[in-house]
Specification:
The chain is an alpha+beta fold. Helix content is 33%, strand content 22%. The protein has four helices and five strands, in the order ββββααβαα. A five-stranded mixed sheet has the order 1-2-5-3-4. Helix 2 runs parallel beside helix 3. It is elongated, with a radius of gyration of 18 Å.
Length: 132
């Protein structure tokens, strides 16, 4: 959704995490929950994962991102932010869609934690079987 002042709103999801992304043309500042993204995401792997949509579409340092993340853990939030940034780029310019889709950034990763079943210690693990 593009507003009248070149502001794009998008939503990304992964596991239980939701990222609400506001993207504006700018210098490449990324703010997550009021903090700089390097403070919020401490590992280099997560930072690289989040920067993939910009690297693939050659839009590094062209947009400012303001994101609000809720739910899940750090890996889920990083995935949600990546999905939200990719959706925002496509909303801004439809020509980015092909390259982002071919790199798998437009599809929501639907894998979630499997629920624990009753009579078992976990989702798949079983109590030890004793015949006698």
């Amino acid at each position: 959704m593009v507003n009248n002042n070149n502001e794009v709103l998008a939503t990304g999801r992964r596991k239980c995490a939701v990222a609400r992304v506001k993207m504006t043309p700018g210098t490449g500042n990324v703010t997550v929950n009021g903090k700089n993204w390097e403070e919020y995401f401490t590992t280099e792997a997560m930072r690289g994962f989040i920067g993939q949509p910009f690297a693939v579409s050659s839009t590094a340092n062209k947009f400012d991102i303001f994101a609000r993340l809720d739910g899940g853990g750090m890996a889920g939030q990083a995935g949600a932010l990546r999905h939200g940034i990719a959706r925002a780029l496509v909303a801004f310019d439809e020509s980015y869609r092909a390259v982002l889709k071919s790199n798998g950034m437009m599809t929501r990763d639907s894998r979630v934690k499997e629920r624990k079943k009753s009579g078992q210690p976990g989702a798949r693990k079983r109590f030890q079987f004793s015949k006698r």
